């Protein structure tokens, strides 16, 4: 009896992979992999994950102490993100254009930007304007002076810089959260906003 049961189980075990193999081949997917010492290791591309120390988020005490700056960052951050999107779109569109068409496209993009946001941005305070300049640098990786220089030329950038200095702005001021205390605080506020703490 034990011998018969063993034979039946062995037969079923050997027969099963054959029937399953036919089913698996119909749903088999091609995967990339690498071979290391004769073993095939599958290769999967994962989405990037940003790891943040909890210490980089604001504490409750810092939130109470910096309410004005938090308000300013919350108000200006959407404008900086929209500016980044529009800049990326503009740069993609003008990449293959001749110089004359490129200038016209840049002027039109500037007009569109002013038409969409000039009334809202005119109502901003000086401190909100300074925060916006920092956030634009944070989002684009370039100071406002460099952006104007690249898009409209050195003369226009110099004019804007001179005009900005009259109101206490510096378009050449770079965003540096590692070495500048205020920029570090702005960075931590942005991270707290993005993590839903603020």
Number of helices: 8
Question: Order of helices and strands, N to C?
Answer: HEEHHHHHHH
- Low-pLDDT runs of 5+ residues are 16-25
What Rg is obtained from the alpha carbons, in whole angstroms? 29 Å
Q: Quick one: biggest sheet?
A: 2 strands, antiparallel
Helix content: 55-70%
- Shape assignment: extended
β-strand percent reads 5-15%
Q: How far from one another are the termini?
A: 73 Å
Class computed from helices, strands and strand pairing: mainly alpha
Major beta sheet, strand line-up: 1-2
Mean pLDDT: 80
Counting DSSP E segments of at least 2 residues, the number of strands comes to 2
Structure, explained:
The chain has helices at 2-27, 60-65, 67-94, 99-122, 126-140, 144-152, 154-166, 181-194; strands at residues 32-36, 39-43. It is mainly alpha-helical. The protein has a domain at 67-113 and 123-194. Helix 3 packs across helix 8 (181-194) and helix 6 (144-152) runs antiparallel to helix 7. It is extended and about 95 Å long.
Which properties best describe this structure?
single chain, 198 residues, mainly alpha, two-stranded antiparallel ribbon, 8 helices, extended
């Amino acid at each position: 009896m034990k011998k018969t049961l063993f034979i039946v189980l062995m037969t079923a075990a050997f027969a099963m992979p054959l029937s399953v193999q036919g089913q698996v081949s119909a749903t088999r997917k091609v995967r990339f992999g690498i071979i290391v010492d004769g073993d095939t290791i599958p290769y999967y591309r994962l989405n990037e994950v940003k790891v943040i120390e909890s210490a980089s988020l604001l504490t409750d005490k810092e939130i109470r102490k910096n309410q004005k700056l938090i308000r300013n960052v919350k108000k200006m951050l959407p404008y900086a993100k929209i500016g980044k999107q529009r800049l990326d779109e503009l740069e993609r569109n003008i990449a293959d254009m001749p110089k004359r068409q490129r200038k016209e496209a840049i002027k039109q993009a500037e007009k569109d930007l002013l038409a969409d946001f000039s009334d809202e941005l005119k109502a901003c305070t000086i401190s909100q304007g300074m925060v916006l300049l920092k956030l634009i640098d944070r989002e684009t990786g370039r100071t406002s002076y460099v952006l104007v220089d690249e898009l409209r030329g050195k003369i226009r950038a110099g004019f804007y810089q001179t005009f900005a200095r009259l109101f206490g702005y510096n378009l050449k001021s770079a965003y540096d959260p590692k070495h500048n205390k205020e920029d570090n605080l702005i960075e931590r506020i942005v991270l707290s906003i993005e993590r839903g703490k603020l």
